[in-house]
Write a structure and sequence with these properties.
The protein is of the alpha/beta class. It is built from 24 helices and 17 strands. The protein has a 7-stranded parallel beta sheet. The longest helix is centred in the N-terminal third of the chain and has 17 residues. The protein binds 2'-deoxyguanosine-5'-triphosphate, calcium ion (2 copies) and zinc ion.
Length: 577
């Protein structure tokens, strides 16, 4: 079992114990264990196999035994008992702002409310205000909280959804009845946010697959289950739809359930023009006979099209491009040689330079730019000019230790101040190999001033890259109000690169912005924005945004070697601006 799965189970148990009004120390023990396991940089399974569970902070004899039980059996008796006691919907109530375990227990035990929908109804009916400790005001708060929750939990960032889906797919692939399994829907198209997970399986024994799927440890609740489709909710509150199809119909099914709906509608139109009707089951000729497509390529070929990468399937011109033989050759993760933003313990990262260098190399990279935050950034510990100079020596030392097989480049993530200046002097910036500039505060400011602040940095010859240009945080903060067209044009004119930040909650630039930047000839970089050794996985989400924005390898700096990147940066600094 994966670290995150076990952490989720312990966190859930803590919630259930709190609802049952159990001993505070017991609740905290589970909560601390969940946090410490989630923060581990090694697979818990490895630690378990080595018999070293007790070395994890917060894991004593009792919890070690529980982890052992989960690892051996995939189940935990204590968890099953709690699940039988506390309805899943009652635990979900804790997601509502202002509803804690005491209130959730109150609603459940006095009014028999076992899910959020029933709670919303009860609040609307004015039935909560009469409960002990409640009133009209707190009843309104519950309604407002539910509304906020519905808005907030609507969509999940790609990186979060992807890990959950991979765990489910791995479990499915292990089932003897499963021939193949694939993500579908927005997940396979790698949209920046995912509504629900769609999973597709080819099997001749759908009912057996469904039965095993319902029993997976990730499943918190089965929403519906039939012979071809099962929907479940995971402990993280994310819905997953599993569909099982005959292997002979895999191609049409995968095509259909990958979508998007708009892309599918266009394809059906193309099929009709060719006297065919396209469905999830097959292509049908006018005489009713079926053409079965075991692969997706066969579906596209039957319509006279080359295969279209899932990331492009949004009806944004990909069908026209395919018909004209002009689909772009999209950048691939395997072409990424370097990373352009990561943090260490010197600012808000969790690992040292050496640890990060080794992790970057393990992620297949040849180089990575060190970009700890500059000093003035209020929200985190930053590096001063003096500390930056000291870090330079450290970088050289790590490069020596890496023996020439991997290279750290000296950079910084420098803050653009409100007045348009940067918070490190030009002499300091000139001494670095690469300079990344970013805005972290005042993002709600007025459009004109904020845009001017960005343009000033883009024009500064010392600035090579603008990080996470729109400042959005998925589910938390909308994009800043910026004149993106002016920013793209200025970046293209001055040769300043714009970042596609792959950090799970950023994905900034997003696909639509990347597409416009590509059209205008802006140079792009993909960054992991890693804050620990696991963070380099974020590059995949950045690559996804690049692909969805039709970017080719030539437009993305990461595909170049370290020396080429340095030459690019030097040519920019010396060019007149
Ligand atoms: P999401 O879940 O909101 O992130 O977006 P999708 O694209 O995953 O949408 P979802 O889960 O409702 O459906 C998965 C795929 O199934 C969708 O991309 C295309 C296909 N599909 C679902 N409903 C329809 C429909 O009514 N018409 C057509 N043509 N395709 C559909
Ligand atoms: Ca979906
Ligand atoms: Ca779905
Ligand atoms: Zn940043």
């Amino acid at each position: 079992m994966k670290n995150q799965e076990i952490a989720a189970i312990f966190a859930r148990m803590a919630d259930m114990l709190a609802i049952l009004g159990e001993n505070y120390h017991r609740i905290m023990a589970y909560r601390r264990a969940a946090e410490n396991i989630a923060a581990l940089s090694r697979p818990l399974e490895e630690i378990w196999q080595a018999g070293e569970l007790r070395t994890i902070p917060g894991i004593g004899e009792t919890l070690a035994a529980k982890i052992d039980e989960l690892m051996r059996t995939g189940r935990l008796e204590a968890y099953e008992k709690l699940k039988a006691q506390v309805p899943a919907g009652v635990v979900d109530m804790l997601l509502i702002p202002d509803v804690g375990p005491k209130k959730a227990a109150l609603f459940w035990q006095t009014l028999g409310i076992t899910d959020i929908e029933a709670l919303e109804q009860a609040a609307r009916d004015g039935r909560l205000r009469h409960l002990p400790g409640m009133g009209v005001k707190s009843e309104e708060k519950v309604l407002a909280g539910i509304a906020a929750l519905k808005k907030r939990t609507g969509r999940t960032p790609l990186g979060v959804a992807w890990s959950l889906a991979q765990a489910l797919l791995e479990a499915l692939r292990k089932m003897p009845e499963v021939v193949q399994a694939s993500p579908a829907g927005s997940l396979r198209r790698m949209r920046d946010t995912i509504g629900d997970l769609d999973l597709l399986v080819a099997s001749a024994e759908p009912e057996a697959v469904m039965a095993r799927f319902r029993e997976l440890p990730q499943v918190a609740e089965v929403l519906l289950s039939g012979p071809t489709k099962t929907s479940i909710r995971t402990h993280e509150g994310i819905q997953a739809d599993l569909r099982v199809v005959e292997p002979a119909r895999w191609g049409t099914a995968l095509q259909y359930f990958t979508g998007s709906q708009a892309h599918n509608i266009r394809l059906r139109g193309l099929a009709l023009e060719r006297g065919l009707s396209l469905s999830e089951y097959s292509l049908k000729r006018e005489d009713g006979s079926e053409i079965l497509c075991p692969t997706e390529e066969e579906v596209y070929a039957a319509l006279g099209l080359p295969p279209i990468p899932p990331e492009l399937r949004e009806d944004r011109g990909e069908i026209e491009a395919a018909l004209a033989g002009r689909l772009p050759i999209l950048i691939e993760r395997s072409q990424v040689r370097g990373d352009f933003q990561f943090h260490t313990v010197r600012s808000d990262g969790r690992n040292t330079l050496l640890e990060m260098a080794r992790a970057a190399q393990a992620a297949g990279l040849e180089y990575a730019v060190v970009t700890d935050h500059s000093y003035s950034l209020g929200i985190t510990r930053g590096v001063s000019a003096a500390a930056l100079r000291r870090q330079r020596a450290e970088i050289e030392e790590v490069n020596r230790l890496m023996g020439g097989t991997f290279r750290l480049l000296a950079g910084v993530e420098v803050e653009m101040r409100a007045d348009g200046t940067l918070d490190l002097p030009d002499e300091e910036l000139a001494g670095l190999e690469l300079v990344v500039a970013a805005i972290h505060s005042g993002l709600r400011g007025e459009r004109e001033r904020l845009t001017a602040r960005m343009l000033a940095a883009i024009r500064n010859p010392h600035v090579d890259i603008i990080a996470h240009p729109t400042g959005r945080l998925i589910g938390e903060r909308e994009e800043a109000d910026l004149d993106m067209e002016a920013i793209f044009r200025a970046a293209a004119e001055h040769g300043t690169a714009l970042e596609i930040n792959g950090y799970t909650h950023r994905l900034d630039l997003n696909d639509v912005h990347v597409r416009r930047a590509v059209e205008l000839g802006v140079t792009l970089v993909i960054s992991s924005d890693a804050h620990d050794v696991n963070g380099f996985a974020n590059l995949a989400w950045g690559v996804a945004m690049a692909r969805r924005g039709w970017a080719t390898a030539a437009q993305v700096l990461n595909t170049r070697r370290a020396e080429e990147v340095l030459a690019w940066a030097r040519s920019r600094t010396s060019a007149p601006s």
